[in-house]
């Protein structure tokens, strides 16, 4: 069974599209006529896998489709999500998942329900404009015709929708991580210690024909949800620190193991598009031997499923530093401060070395030492001690 959750395909009606870090090259480029065949094949494979499984196996399908290998250190106590244990990050009960079941319910669980099983494993797709931002133009699709008709006139990215997201008080959420690339020629990748958790404004329900167009339920973008009548500025965004407490206290998650997997996703994604970027960099900045000619701050959006498996939703090549909420002000002010520090963007450098490549190797080593010693809350995730295992992800 292929990893359907990890399939991301891009259809672009223009001859070529360039984007920083080769984002457009991360998916399979398809001709419009092949989109329908791709979706039909995914449905066929998914149907073949599920019709031969019983209900217990079907419940494990989501975990098997994880893009990262399962890690025993990450534990999801799903019963805790519906328990009455009190924490300062309390999760609300959901009656339909109540742990108290009568005898008739238990008897029904033993009976295979083919109709329900197929419905639960029917893939839902999410379509995103290739050049879009802030949730604009995003659509969910349940039928092949909806996908092909949308892609006929627009350049779109088609992804399989995560239908079982981890919920916070019943609401869907995702996490924005800030990733800094300080060097292209000698690749160095940092991740910021703090991020922003973004929540939807309507309680989540699995997509169906009634709610599939409800973007306040299925999307977490601030620019979308601020228009909801349920919008609450203090609740729309949370700090990464508070989310960590929620994951640890409610779901007993090993945070070190979880973040190792998230870092792994980020490194592999950057390396996949690294070679084309390096070639363009070397061609553009031919005279730069040691001096770094540029940097990039990226926004990686990650979502967790109900088993606390991380998935990459998308990458924003120009992460917004706007500060519409109090959480934004705190985190992005510190982020900007540390960004100036690690890049050594002081007045003397702007007047001098940044304008010419006047470094020798010894000065370059001192530059690296300065970067590491003045990184603030940035942590380097590449190069790393297990660097050899990533070589196969560097694609020509």
Automatic annotation (TrEMBL):
GO terms for biological process: microtubule cytoskeleton organization. Residues 46-117 are annotated as: Disordered. GO terms for molecular function: ATP binding; tubulin binding; tubulin-glutamic acid ligase activity. Residues 72-112 have a biased composition (Basic and acidic residues). It comes from the Eukaryota. PROSITE patterns: TTL (PS51221). This is Tubulin polyglutamylase TTLL6-like. It comes from Diaphorina citri (Asian citrus psyllid). Residues 46-59 have a biased composition (Low complexity). GO terms for cellular component: ciliary basal body. InterPro entries: TTL/TTLL_fam. Keywords: ATP-binding, Ligase, Nucleotide-binding.
């Amino acid at each position: 069974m292929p990893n359907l959750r990890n399939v991301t395909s891009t259809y672009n009606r223009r001859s070529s599209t360039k984007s920083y870090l080769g984002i457009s090259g991360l998916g399979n480029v398809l001709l419009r006529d092949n989109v329908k065949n791709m979706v039909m094949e995914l449905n066929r494979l998914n149907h073949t896998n599920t019709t031969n499984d019983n209900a217990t196996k079907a419940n494990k399908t989501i975990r098997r489709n994880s893009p990262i290998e399962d890690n025993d250190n990450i534990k999801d106590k799903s019963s805790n999500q519906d328990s009455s244990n009190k924490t300062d990050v309390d999760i609300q009960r959901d009656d339909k998942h109540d742990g108290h079941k009568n005898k008739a319910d238990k008897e029904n669980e033993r009976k295979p329900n083919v109709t329900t099983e197929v419905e639960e494993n029917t893939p839902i797709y999410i379509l995103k404009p290739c050049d879009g931002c802030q949730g604009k133009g995003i659509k969910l699709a349940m039928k092949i015709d909806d996908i092909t008709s949308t892609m006929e006139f627009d350049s779109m990215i088609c992804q399989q929708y995560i239908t079982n997201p981890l919920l916070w008080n019943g609401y869907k959420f995702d996490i924005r991580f800030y990733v800094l690339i300080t060097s292209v020629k000698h690749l160095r990748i940092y991740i910021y210690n703090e991020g922003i958790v973004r929540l939807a404004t309507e309680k989540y329900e699995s997509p169906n024909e009634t709610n599939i167009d409800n973007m306040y339920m299925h999307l977490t973008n601030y620019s979308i949800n601020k228009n909801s009548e349920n919008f609450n500025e203090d609740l729309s965004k949370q700090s990464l620190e508070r989310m960590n407490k929620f994951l640890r206290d409610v779901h007993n998650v090993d945070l070190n193991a979880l973040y190792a997997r998230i870092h792994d996703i980020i490194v592999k994604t950057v390396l996949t598009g690294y070679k084309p970027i390096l070639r363009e960099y070397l061609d553009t900045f031919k005279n730069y031997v040691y001096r770094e000619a540029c940097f990039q701050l990226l926004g990686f959006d990650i979502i967790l499923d109900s088993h606390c498996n991380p998935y990459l939703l998308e990458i924003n090549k120009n992460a917004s530093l706007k500060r519409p909420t109090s959480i934004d002000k705190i985190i992005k002010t510190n982020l900007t401060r540390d960004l100036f520090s690690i890049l050594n963007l002081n007045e003397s450098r702007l007047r001098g070395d940044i304008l010419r490549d006047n470094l020798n190797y010894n000065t370059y080593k001192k530059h690296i030492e300065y970067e590491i010693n003045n990184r603030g809350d940035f942590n380097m995730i590449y190069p790393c001690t297990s660097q050899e295992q990533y070589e196969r992800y560097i694609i020509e």
